[in-house]
Design goal:
There is one protein chain. This protein is of the alpha/beta class and 315 residues long. It has one domain: Aldolase class I (TIM Barrel, Alpha-Beta Barrel). It has 8 helices and 19 strands. The strands form 6 sheets. The chain has a 7-stranded parallel beta sheet with strand order 3-19-18-13-12-9-8. It has a 4-stranded antiparallel beta sheet with strand order 5-6-17-14, with no helix packed on it. Strands 1-2 form a two-stranded antiparallel sheet.
């Protein structure tokens, strides 16, 4: 079940999804987070951030909307407290970083790199699916040039043997164009997808459910979008339209079967997010289920299944 992401080999392909398991201590009460291929932290920014106003969450059919607003303690507190704790329990960590400008991303990456606990970092997930405050709130991941600038600056701050993964938004016309721009700028891999922008109206009070009006849609309802995005980008790689790099699939995974769908589409690793809210053991359960499925189908290794659906069209 081991998998390779850039220069790193992970024991297995299962991860948490950023923002759905805080920074580890909460989930560690339910299972050993070191069992995961990697623990993905909540996106951390340069300074402490209180986030958006309440209400912040709303239930939707087959999912949920969240409008947390990247609340967090800031990178200094993260490297002083959260990252050392993760290292102390033997976790392999994929910190998620964010920023309101390309230079803020670079600063966060530099502080992260200087941490005494950096040895536990197997890669850095660059959450470019957040608004660029220097460009009228445009989401970085909706523009190839903005995406590439962030990735290039982060790449300068992170050691070459530590892969960086650009986390992409599905709210674009052509996700392959954004993916190609990120890889050209230095991304060693891609995480797909972030939440979809959505909105819900409270029909009793006839006003938006969320204090921030719009929010990110996650959960089972978005899985077909994630599968489509992974498929399209993997196809672009297979056709030589962009370099081949590993893809981390995320979006609506609740079961091993859900994970297998993303893997067959081209994902070398899978993140579990929203499912953890009602089943905190979901990441390790999905790993067990996926392992059982591959054994039942007669596969000897996990790598055999990555992208396998691309060679089976029409069979």
């Amino acid at each position: 079940m081991s998998t390779t992401l850039g220069a790193r080999r992970l024991a297995n392909p299962l991860m948490t999804a950023s923002g759905c398991a805080a920074n580890g201590q909460e989930l560690h009460r339910f299972f050993d987070v070191a069992e995961l291929g990697a623990f993905v932290t909540k996106s951390v920014m340069s300074e402490p951030r209180s986030g958006r106003g309440t209400p912040r969450m709303a239930e939707t059919p087959s999912g949920m909307l969240n409008s947390i607003g990247l609340q967090g303690p800031g990178i200094q507190a993260f490297v002083e407290h959260d990252l050392p704790w993760l290292a102390s329990v033997g976790a392999t960590v994929l910190p998620s970083i964010a920023g309101g400008s390309a230079t803020e991303f670079a600063h966060v990456a530099a502080v992260l790199r200087s941490s005494d606990a950096f040895d536990c970092v197997a890669g850095v997930e660059v959450n470019i699916s957040c608004p660029n405050v220097a460009n009228r709130g445009l989401v970085f991941a909706c523009d190839p040039v903005s995406s590439a600038k962030v990735i290039a600056l982060v790449r300068e701050q992170v050691p070459r043997d530590v892969p960086i993964f650009a986390k992409l938004s599905p709210d674009v016309t052509d996700i392959t164009a954004i993916a190609a721009a990120c890889v050209k700028a230095g991304a060693d891999g891609l995480t797909m997808i972030n939440t979809l922008l959505g909105m819900s109206i409270d029909t009793d009070r006839l006003r938006p459910h969320l204090g921030g009006v719009t929010g990110g849609l996650s959960g089972p309802g978005i899985r077909p979008v994630a599968v489509r995005a992974v498929w399209q980008v993997r196809a672009a790689m297979d056709e030589g339209r962009m370099p081949t790099v590993p893809i981390i699939g995320v979006g609506g995974v609740r079961t091993g079967t859900d994970a297998l769908e993303l893997v067959a589409a081209g994902a070398s690793a899978v993140q579990v997010g929203t499912a953890s809210f009602n089943d905190p053991t979901a990441p390790v359960r999905v790993l067990r289920e996926l392992t059982g499925l591959l054994e039942a189908k007669g596969f000897a290794t996990f790598d055999e299944v990555v992208g396998i659906a691309h060679g089976r069209q029409g069979e």
